[in-house]
Known about the structure:
By secondary structure, the chain is α/β, with parallel strands linked by helices. The protein has helices at residues 2-14, 48-60, 89-97, 114-118, 154-179, 185-203, 214-242, 269-273, 287-300, 310-320, 345-360, 363-371, 391-462, 485-489, 496-521, and strands spanning 22-27, 63-64, 81-86, 105-111, 122-123, 128-137, 262-264, 279-281, 305-309, 324-339. Among the domains are: 147-244; 417-462 and 480-532. β7, α8 (269-273) and β8 (279-281) form a beta-alpha-beta unit.
Amino acid sequence: MHGLVLALLLLAAWMPAASAAHYVVCTADNPPMSTCNITANPSTYSGFDVELFRSAAQLMGWTESEGGEASNASQPQGGDTFELVCRPFSDVVADLTAPGGTCTLAAAGITISSEREDRGIKFSFPTYHSSLAIMVYAEEKQDTGWFFLRPFDWTVWLAIALTVAAIPAITFVTEFISIEGRIQQRDVVPGMKEASWRSLWTMMLLEPFQVTAISSRVIAVIYGFLATVLVNTYCANLTAALTVSQLATSIQSVEDLRGKAVGTVAVYVSRLAKLGIAAAEIPFDSIESALNVWVPMLQQGTLVATAVDEPIQQFVAALGGCSLRLVDTFAPFDFGAAFRVGTNQSFIDALDDKLLVLQEDGTAEELRTTFIAIPRTECASNVDESTSITFSQVAGLWIVLAAGVGLALIWLLGLRLWQQSSRRHSFKAGVAFRQTVSIYGAQIAAARRDLEAAALEEAGRAGSGLTLDGSGSAPAAGHEAPGSPMARVLPEDQSVAQLLAHVRQLCDRMEAHAETSYMEGGQRIVDERIEEVPELD
């Protein structure tokens, strides 16, 4: 037994140890994703994809070395080595599909595409979410005397002007109808002048809108809120606009490229054609070609824009000067590490796990800031230029104002209906009063005529020649002879004095009722002519 164990130990000692794998990682001079020089030491190679792979390899336990024969990428393990090899970008992609190729994988800002996957190239988890970007050359705008209008779009200025003009008319109508009940022609001009000035002062936050009616106050409060928000927004946007340089360019989005001279690399010509953009192919062998060819063409006006990968555009703009600016991005896509045809999927999965770790711990974002989104603090135009506020961005203020005006009008309508009801009641009381007085007045006049006739008749019988002018007297009221004219005019139990007393009491009640109606309805009952009284229901 002991001999068997000893033999196994000797056999294990004689067996050669498993050699560490060596991987050839191809890259290209494709800044900012990768930068290299064939004649330079690989330790100087850099760029977003290169540094991201180095960080992933460190997590895998690999070490960077120079030289060595490439191993099959099967099961990576700690102790494996890798080396970076710089080649032209087109050779890197071709090597991954060539039978005698030497690249185990490539980290050079290679786009993940279905066309490359159909050729057998495999890709890692996306290392960077990119897109095509539009770069333009734009001189700094010269400030004009109308710079103060820039914070608001013309639609907002138009809305403000219409509001300042409309609010005086609305408040004038609601104020006069609420208080006076009607608008007198002589009050229109001075009232509108005063309301217009107050509307303008309120919009400039110089003075609050002074009104007394509830409906007018509702409108004034909401109008004051709108003015406060607009004034503060204007001041903030104007301050921001003064701190940045404005670039003069007519290109703001991909839609503006149609019919214009646009440059792009060969792989994107057909893609842009599908968007209706007839782009011309421009050379791109290195970042120097972009700086020496693209930028002069943009400066001279031969091209109005270039449409290339967003990381490349940002890198060129950072090196080419403050007049180069990215205005829009479109057609998103992803970059990833590319693997040779036939690479074992477990090898790719192991590297994907480390790439995800680097994204989660913030390493990938730090590299993006270092190599791609390079801050351009020396350029004022690098700060996002202040854009004008459009009406759609502040339309909610006018919606609130319209709702307030509607609420005020509903309140005013309800108040008017209540006042009309109260006034109709007062009119009916006044008409009833006049009708009653007219009836009793007719009775008194008829009684007086009968009394005079009866008195003359009695005086004639007596032969005394008495009249009612003070030289004689008629029979005392209440003592008329039966069957006499006075007895026929008045009821047996009612004298003229009693009738007059009854009229006075009725008048007192009518006056008290009119006064009560005035207090309740808030309307003064004036002495109007009978023909002005509206027809009673």
